[in-house]
Amino acid sequence: MFTILPTKGFIDQIDGFFCDGIHAGLKPNGKLDLGFIYSDTLCDVDAVFTLNKFQAAPVKHFQRYEKGFKTNFVLINSKNANALTGQSGIDNIDKVFSSLKFDLTNPIMSSTGVIGNPLPVEKIVSGANSFNLSSKNGDNLSKAIMTTDAYPKTSLYEVKLEDGSSFKIGSVAKGAGMINPNLATMLCFICTDAAIPQEDMKELLEANSHTTFNAISVDGDTSTNDTVLLLANKKSNTYNKEAFKEALRLVMHDMAMLMVADGEGAKKAVAFEVNGALNDQEAEIAAKALSNSLLVKTALFGEDPNFGRIASTIGASRVTCDENTLVISYNDVIVFNKGEICFDKAQEAKASQVLKNDKYKVICDLGIAEGKFTAYGCDLGYKYVEINADYRS
């Protein structure tokens, strides 16, 4: 038995972890743009990365380390992705770390921002050398890593085991655009003092990614820099695999839902719940087709319960389906029921009312078998175009 309790605060409340964010001159107007995570003891580390074929220099730099390496430092910059920068991008990371005054072991760098610009090494070195590694300012860190995010994204839990022992797990993340299944466009840093074995880290990261970060979509684009990093300093000397897996799922789900809700001008966060599919794989195909569909997204933006767009998207996904077994609902409002159109004025009004909410479900029961999957998406409106038309500025 175990208890998982949500806790107010940031990753700096976890024993042995320190963090902060500063302005190093990468963003205009004095905004925070460079942050760090530091552990006073070495951490086991594992990660999952973007499936984009053009992985950014920080991802490639991480992959040079030997399997099972330990680290005590993560440096994170915004405004510059250090992607499509070739070998010089990796070399610039080495230049940064060789110029820092701190005693670091296998330091990790993570970057987010505009693709195709050289890393501003001098600004980053100057800023990083001003860090106080004993700082505990998770609020600053959460703001420093933001790009088009409307708000910071953090999560923290305490896990209490039956014998009275406990551990903490928390995260800080960024992500609002270029969000698409296969990691979503994002950076997420998860810290824990749990004594998790190295071999469990990758297993549990990958298991939980499938239903969290790999189940969300804002705009159908996958970034070059997507990273989910798990750092464990083991200072609690406490671990339970079942409890850790669930706590990790909660942390990752929190971050994924905050990203969808923040989807660059988004006003609606929607769960696309597909049930009754031939198998789980076909349910996932249909659910992700719905979360990625531009026609569906614009209908959500217009608060238009157009079930035709839902049905058409499912059919276009080429999964096994039949209009005579299909049921479509907005929350508990059924609009199409096994070949019968239920979209009279009364039902349309009820469905329209559901779509005025900030959060709701689009439920599609294919009526074929037992397969199920839930994907998460958002609406797409004018603000998304405005942000991305002018992104480099």
Explain the overall architecture.
The protein has 393 residues and is an alpha+beta fold. The protein folds into 2 domains: 2-261, L-amino peptidase D-ALA esterase/amidase; 269-389, Ubiquitin-like (UB roll) (Roll). It contains 11 helices and 15 strands. It has helices at 57-63, 86-98, 121-128, 138-144, 198-209, 241-261, 280-292, 294-301, 307-316, 345-355, 382-389; strands at 2-6, 17-22, 34-49, 70-77, 108-111, 153-161, 166-174, 187-192, 227-232, 269-277, 327-330, 333-337, 340-341, 359-365, 371-378. The strands form 2 sheets. Strands 1, 2, 3, 4, 5, 6, 7, 8 and 9 form a 9-stranded mixed β-sheet that branches. It has a 6-stranded mixed β-sheet with strand order 13-12-11-14-10-15. Strand 11 (327-330) and strand 12 form a beta hairpin. Helix 1 (57-63) crosses helix 2 and helix 7 (280-292) packs across helix 9. The longest helix has 21 residues, at 241-261. The model is unreliable at 177-184 (pLDDT under 50). This is Arginine biosynthesis bifunctional protein ArgJ. Substrate binds at residues 147, 174, 185, 264, 388, 393. GO terms for molecular function: L-glutamate N-acetyltransferase activity; L-glutamate N-acetyltransferase activity, acting on acetyl-L-ornithine as donor.
